Amino acid sequence: MYNKGDGTYITQPKFMGYDVADNIIQKTLSHCLENELTTFHFSFHGGEPLLAPKQFYRDFITKCNSLFLPKKVRAIYSLQTNGILLTDEWCDLFRELEIYVSVSMDGDKKTHDQYRVDFKGDGTYDRVIKGLRTLQRKFEDNDEYHINLLSVINTKSNPIEQYEHFCNLGGISYMDFLFPDSNYEYAAEPGISDTPIADYLIPIFDRWFHEEENKIRVRLFQAFITSLIGSDTVSTDSYGHLENNILVIESNGSIESVDVLKICGDGFTKNNYNILNNKLEDALDEPLIDLYYYSHVNLCEQCQNCPLSTICGGGYLPHRYSKINGFDNPSVYCKDLAKLICHIQNSMLDQLPLDVLETTAVERLDWDELYTYVSQYRLPSAVHEII
Fold first, then answer.
1. Domains delineated in the chain
2. Which of 32, 50, 122, 193 is least surrounded by Cβ atoms within 10 Å, i.e. has the fewest?
3. Which is it for the CA torsion 91, 167, 225, 338, positive or negative?
């Protein structure tokens, strides 16, 4: 996200201080008690969170648990890392403090090293693999500890080769594919089709869907399947139709909306709220945070008239932005989402016996026909053309 023009990180502390951390703990507990919440999820993110000292995490979680547990509030802890700095000592700390870890890996060595490089420009794949193996070894005796991977889609790579690479790693129980950060001002690299993300994911879905053993749980696929069969409980900030519930606290204590919104412009997420001076509730009235919270509810006209809107929720808010219309646009990945969701539904219908299909009102979907229909509601001269 910091490659899209936002430079505000330069003026912020590299590490979060204890004054900020203490305020986060105290004010989060107050928020939970005032709203009768029994669980709260803390996610340590970055930058790279393993650059912070280990003692910071021990102190944060020890204090948090000492205050939360007597009030019958359970804190859940997770951490997102690029994996380069994973060591036995870090993994021992994760085990001690019960921190769930996700590792960022974009595919095999060639694919991963295309963008994931260090300050010298050298690829980081080999170091990530070493860190991942350390994490696996340290938790191989713990069936309840799931090792997760996050992979940013690279449409220039072979999708089946990348999926097989993840499967062959072994010990990976859960992963997700992330759409590249893009909007109508900052386009992803052009592909050979106007649905490059869907064209990448569909072969992986077909392979995954028909596997019977040792299947990795893929969050995106499982979420769409669950929603298509009628569940109204599956929702993230990237899809679904429920409210979003994430706030970001920066290292200086500023309370902001989801960090990927930084791709919309320099200082785009900045406001006057800070955990040192404000409660969490204070920031919920900030326009951008409020917009993000209801981003799957407040949709553009095209999305309001689309039958898939309860599944995709209009997509991820940062992917809808244009200087002309603000966020009153469909996602730049609208075609991809429509094509992928229609393919998943049709694949599910293909598994049903004919007599069952005849008794239901569910029909196969033509994504191109559907997209052409809903596109009539798009605002004229809405945005730049993007492939």
1. 8-293 (3.20.20.70), 301-377 (no CATH)
2. 122
3. positive
